[in-house]
Please model this.
Amino acid sequence: MLNGATFVDRGLVGTGSVPADTLDFLGDTLGSFSSLQIAPGSWRRVGDHYEGVLWTLPDRGRNDPSAKLFFDYAARLERFRLRFNPADGRVDLAPDGGLELTDFRGKPFTGADPGSGTVRERGVRLPAPASGTGAGKVSIDAESLQFTRDGSFYIGDEYTANVYFFGPDGRLRGVVTPPPAIVPTCSGKPCFGSLTSPDSGRRNNQGPEGMSLSPDGRTLFVALQSALMQDSAKGGAGRTDIRVLAYDVSRTPTPKRPVAHYAMQLPTYAKGGEGAPDSTAAQSEIRAIDGHRFLMLARDGAGIGSGGTPVYKRILVVDVAGASDLAGSEYETGAASLLRNGAGTALKPGIVPAQWAELVDMLDPEQLSRVGLDVAQLSEKWEALDLVSVLEPEHPDDYFLIVGNDNDFIARHCRMSGQSCDSAFDNDNRVLVYRLTLPGPLR
Model:
């Protein structure tokens, strides 16, 4: 329950996977799900099962930042035909082509780190490697996806913290640039690379991981993965105070500034599951329920892909109603910190954060056993969410929550840009399906 509203987890009801070494429509290893969404209007019930078109978003391609290894990976969306039978819990995912993304000029993007390189397109400074891999192309590290009703879509980028708006043909149509507080800066200048920590703004590889339109299509919520540099305290548990922005997109798809700006405090956990909390459960995706509430996936960094035993992977319900609105304040227009000096992650007096409650524990062994899984079979990075109706007139408030992982292109047989990128093991692409009861229809 949250603020008088009841949310019910009816349990894990399905799972499906795609082998890690699957090749996509461009001949590269299929890169799993940094975000996903059922295509608007495609979800239907057919006899005893459900069908739909599933669009998924891979990130910047296989990479090894510690070795400064990146590929010239073209940004894209992957399309699947999805079939789900609740009777046996089976989810079938059949690759069905995809869509390559292009910039304002109609040129492909690259996943390569831009370093200090930039280009200007339509008056917007965008990251682009000056030389080497991907030289001259706009760099994008795609992490969040949201379709509009006409088939256009938004993608959140981790390099810049921009939100890019694409037409149904995959061509860039506009850019929502973040407020000054969120732009990564080094010595007062924007720095979009991911290999050098900025002085302020979004933390390396911790950009707009969560993004979702309210069901009425009016409000676009954008959530940072963890705290901005200026909002961070010392230690692994010091990245809890994140920013959540709300944009009014009812008049233009690319507004210049947010209409609301909130703080939220993420969960913390102890690595290994014992002792005092020493780590932040960074958020990896959101899905809006209405104009002030959304589901959020918060997780640890353990599991297949990174090693260690997972201890925290949960779906939260978040409510920004009642939270302080920071829009237009010094916390948005400059680099002022939300934190009370010398008080760890405590917020300054007068700043009221969004409220939240836990709804789904993805590590519940009893739930996992229902679909033949255990904790040891879960990958590290669960980063994708979507909600679809169960389409039962007698249960109008029930929904399926589809959760997907990001496998980081880890496969024993991996191909990227015509080159080998083999790993020592397979990290399969997987989805989990939960049944939820929400307080009223999405609106």
Remarks:
- The longest strand covers residues 8-18.
